[in-house]
Known about the structure:
Elements: H1 4-8, H2 11-40, H3 54-107, E1 110-112, E2 118-120, H4 128-164, H5 182-198, H6 205-217, H7 222-246, H8 250-266, H9 277-284, H10 286-303, E3 305-308, E4 312-317, H11 318-326, H12 336-350, E5 363-364, H13 376-379, H14 386-394, H15 398-405, H16 413-420, E6 426-428, E7 435-436, H17 443-454, H18 462-465, H19 471-486, H20 501-510, H21 512-520, H22 541-547, H23 551-574, H24 583-608, H25 617-645, H26 651-655, H27 657-670, H28 680-702, H29 715-731
Parallel strand pairs: 5-6
Antiparallel strand pairs: 1-2, 3-4, 6-7
Amino acid sequence: xxTYADVLDDGFAAALESAAEALETAADGYSGVxxxxxxxxxxxxxxxxxxxxxxxxxxxxxxxxxxxxxxAAEAEARALxxxxxxxxxxxxxxxxxxxxxxxxAADAGLVVDARGVVLDALDRTGNPDIDDxxxxxxxxxxxxxxxxxxxxxxxxxxxxxxxEGRDGRHAGIFNGSARSDxxxxxGARAEELARRVAEGEELTGAEWDExxxxxxxxxxxxxxxxxxxxxxGADGLVELAARVTADPSDRHTGLREGxxxxxxxxxxxxLLEPGSAAYGQWSRGEEGRxxxxxxxxxxxxxxxxxxxxxxxxxxxxGYQLLVSLMDTEPPGEWGERFLHDLADGxxxxxxxxxxxxxxxxxxxxxxxxxxxxxxxxxxxRFALDPLDGLLGIMSHDPAVASAYLDPAGGDDRLEYLLxxxxxxxxxxxxxxGPTALPDAAGPGFAAALEAATTGIPHGAPPTTDGxxxxxxxxxxxxxxxxxxxxxxxxxxxxxxxATMRPELSRMTAAYMAEVxxxxxxxxxxxxxxxxxxxxxxxxxxxxxSELARTPDEYAVLLGAQQTFTAFSVDYAINGPGVxxxxxxxxxxxxxxxxxxxxxxxxxxxxEGVYSRAVxxxxxxxxxxxxxxxxxxxxxxxxxxxxxxxxxxAGPLIEWGAGELSDAIFENLRRDTSAEAxxxAADGYHAGxxxxxxxxxxxxxxxxxxxxxxxxxxxxRLDAFRDVVIPVVDDHFQNEENWEPENVEK
Length: 745
């Protein structure tokens, strides 16, 4: 391994240059000898009058072999010389990076010693800030040394590969086909080993280690990755995917991840407008030519059928294997254009309107629900639905997901996914013949929608990246809400998008301000500084009611409703521009939207949950932790963004989101199913009471009063309480979807 001291030693550059010059001199010598040999020796057998017969024929073959060997020796020497110079330049570049890091550390009051250890120049031991800074600079130094080590190792591997390689000539000892670029040499070697795996050959332990090392060292090297994939070809890549899918051993799993990384690196291309000058220039370059050819080959291999021996007797389409290869943990850093192009290719393969084959992904099943006896884990080893799999991959990058689904400009991708695409890709054997399973949208589509509309990567805690609503995501949200508002049965029990309710509830919670505004045509202040959606033309009652039928979704929506109502109350009392307005009227306007939405939710909750047996208190409360995370996050977003905007922070902000969220979820915890399951009215009444409590709690906090205090004497609180309670009474009850019997408020 290269050390910091090795890097500072100027000797390596001179040694590499000296070796390169010696090899160049040797190549010139081989060239001269080859010319003289051809003139003095090889020419003897070309003159039939001087030498004829069997001996002349035999000599001609041997003379040709020698001439070829001299040419190969020259080619190998020149390739080695070029590799040394290429490696020398890279090592010097990386050394400059390292010395620059050391110089910057010195400017920050630190020093890097001869061992590469970062020290405080003033010896301020025990100072946390200095210790943190020193640790950060140490990481930078270590990273720079690691990059040098990687370059040094790559150079060594390339030199060994050229020196040990052969060009296929009979009895040849020199490598006449040697490449002169480090990335090309190593990429070609990785391709050779990967191809042998794809063809079913078992590598030796040393070869497995070599392949793993090559893929790890060159994970972010585009030229290496293009060389590897160009040699392997799209067919070879899919065959390799079939091999690692059929045999998920540790070695094959590691190879799957390495090849997926190489594919991501090779296809991470710029977003350029087709037809533009920049696109034309790019498409004519090495990267553009590779991408265009490889993508076309990939589509051909993607629609072709491939055997997966050891997994299923049915042929599997190439796209199903390819997407399985791409779906790695942690998620790969895939380029936007490649994911979009690949998804469009999958659609072309399946969409009859584009000449595709209906049911192209469908597999046959048995009457036990299996495919050739495979269980769910086996089926998860390849992407039964490659388009849904690609959407799931996009969901880890909200910008990629929103750009793909955005309906702006007449793009019909979202329309196709919502209204035209059949989602069932599995058929069961029955006495009357094969029967397709009921249509149900896949988890990848649901995850992509949530990521696109909220800006939060799928699987990431919402506090990691924060709510990042964009214009593209808002347009996606509008299209989704319009569809399910017009056709709420699609998300009802048994609907083709019923499984999407958890994601839809979180998406709707993130847009609760617009939801409340659309229902009442009033004004609910939302998170400032984020893109806005417009639901004003939609009838949202049926949509909200279907979402709120289950405990988890109801809790998410109710938490969001209480969050935004609390913020509306605080805004009415403390927000900018309220001076000179009747506070009581502002407060009434602030409470009305939340009360009406709470009524919709309580209706659905009573009908959908309390009319049937559901989990007990323990099960409900155990899931409430996830709900708390999401709704508490929304509260932080709303209040935190408002704190940046308010010229003077209101008491709600001073209290902090934690206090208000405690009040909100104390109400939700009372809404457990065990005691109220037999009586729908009890559940409806619980929602009404929770709304009362949440509004009063928000009112108290906005006035700077602890709502949990035993003795509260504040004339403003008493006056405003008399304002908001009648508003809740007048606007909570909504009997559009369920008529509560014998409910007295």
